[in-house]
Design goal:
By secondary structure, the protein is an alpha+beta fold. The chain contains five helices and eight strands, in the order E-E-E-E-E-E-E-E-H-H-H-H-H.
Length: about 170
C-alpha cells in the first residue's frame, strides 16, 4: 500500500491489522479530546507496527500519519498471531523488533537529555539525516512538533532555527 505525505495509516482507538513499513517515515500522534495533537513517535523503514500489538492485540494507541511517501505492507492480525504461536523463532523475531525500537527510544532519550536546546535540535536533525538525506526535517515536522519531540517550546525551536539560518547566511 502506498501512502502520500499527510495520509493516515490508522486512527487512534481503532483496531485492525499490523503493518510493516517498507519505505518512508510515519509520525504517530495522540489526539486529545480538544482536537490538539501530540507527536510521540516516528516510525522508520523495517518496523512492524503497532509495537504494543506485536505479542497480543490491542486497539491503536495513536494515529499514524505519513511524513513522506511510504510503502507499507499489511499484515492481517490473525496471520501474525497464528505465525507467532507456531515457533519460538517467531517470538524471538517479535522480541528483536521490540528491542530495535527500544534502542531507538534510548537514542531519543539521549536527545532529550542534552542540556542545551541547540544540541537537542542538532541531535534530532542528525537522527533524521540517517533516514532521509534529501529533505530537511523542518519540512517534515512543524516547529510545534519538533518542540514536542524535544521537550522545548515552539518559540525556542523558532529562535534556534532562525539563529542557525542567520549563521548559515553569514557563511554563504
Amino acid at each position: 500500500m502506498r501512502l502520500h505525505k499527510g495520509e493516515v495509516l490508522f486512527r487512534q482507538g481503532e483496531s485492525g491489522p499490523l503493518f510493516r513499513v517498507e519505505q518512508g517515515l510515519l509520525k504517530v500522534v495522540r489526539i486529545h479530546e480538544d482536537g490538539s495533537q501530540f507527536i510521540f513517535n516516528i516510525i522508520t523503514p523495517g518496523e512492524v507496527i503497532p509495537h504494543h500489538s506485536l505479542i497480543t492485540p490491542k486497539e491503536y494507541h495513536g494515529t499514524a500519519i505519513a511524513l513522506t511517501t511510504c510503502e507499507v505492507s499489511i499484515i492481517p492480525a490473525s496471520e501474525w498471531y497464528a505465525e507467532l504461536e507456531q515457533t519460538a523463532d517467531n517470538y524471538r523475531r517479535a522480541a528483536s523488533l521490540l528491542q530495535s525500537k527500544l534502542r531507538m527510544m534510548q537514542q531519543r532519550i539521549d536527545q532529550l537529555t542534552a542540556i542545551e536546546p541547540r544540541e537537542r535540535l542538532q541531535r534530532l536533525e542528525q537522527w533524521f539525516r540517517s533516514y532521509i538525506t534529501d529533505i530537511p526535517f523542518t519540512e517534515l515536522l512543524t516547529q510545534e512538533e519538533i518542540g514536542q519531540f524535544l521537550g522545548l517550546r515552539r518559540e525556542t525551536v523558532n529562535r534556534l532555527l532562525r539563529a542557525r539560518a542567520a549563521k548559515d547566511d553569514a557563511k554563504g
